[in-house]
Amino acid sequence: MALEALKASLADSPVVRRGDYDYLVHPITDGIPSIDPVILREITDAMAEIGNFDCDLITTIEALGIPLATCLSLKTGKPFNIVRKKMYGLPGEVSVTQVTGYSRSALFINGLKAGDRVVVVDDVVSTGGTLWALVEALKSMQVKIVDILVVLEKTDKKAEIERKIGMPIKTLVKVDVVNGKVVVL
C-alpha cells in the first residue's frame, strides 16, 4: 500500500487560511482541479485492502466521499448511501449538526435503519467534528458501524477522536500543514 501517486499529488496542494484553520485544497478533498483516476484507483484499492466490508452498506458524506464510495461499491459489490447536506423531509430522516474547524452545518441521513451494518468512508479527518456527529447519529439510530475508512488524516488528535467516537479510524496517509505547505508524515 505505497500510495505513491496520492503522496506525490499532496506536495503540490495549495493551502488556504480559513480563520485560524489551514485548509488543504486537493482533488480528493475538494474536487479541485480534477480527480485523477489513477489516484482514485490507488486510494480505493488501499481502502478495499484494509477495510472490513462485512456490511450491508457503505455510507459516505456528501460530496467528496461520493467518488470514494462509488468506486468501493463497484469493487466490493456493496451498495452505498449518501449522508446529504440538504433536508428532504422523508419519513425517518435524521438531522445531524456538524462542527468542523471552519464551519457549522446540518447533515441529513436517509435510507438507513436500525440493524443496518455500515462502513463509513470519508475523504479527510481533521478536527473530527463531522465524523463524531455522524457516528453519534448512527449509534442513536442503532446502525452498527463495522469500520471507518478515511483517506487523509490531518490531525494530531486521532487517538482523542477515536476515544470520543469509541472505535478506530483507519486512515491511508497522515499529513500536516507546515509553513503553508502540505507535508506527508
Descriptive notes:
The model has no long low-confidence stretch (mean pLDDT 94). The protein is globular. Helix 4 (65-76) links the parallel strand 3 and strand 4 (80-83). It has a single domain (4-173), classed as Rossmann fold, CATH 3.40.50. Helix 3 crosses helix 4 (65-76). It starts with a helix and ends with a strand. Helices cover 31% and strands 33% of the residues. With 185 residues, it is of the alpha/beta class. Strands 4-3-7-8-9-10 form a six-stranded mixed β-sheet, with helices on both faces. Strands 1-2 form a two-stranded antiparallel ribbon. It has a two-stranded antiparallel sheet with strand order 5-6. The chain is built from six helices and ten strands, in the order H-E-E-H-H-E-H-E-E-E-E-H-E-H-E-E.
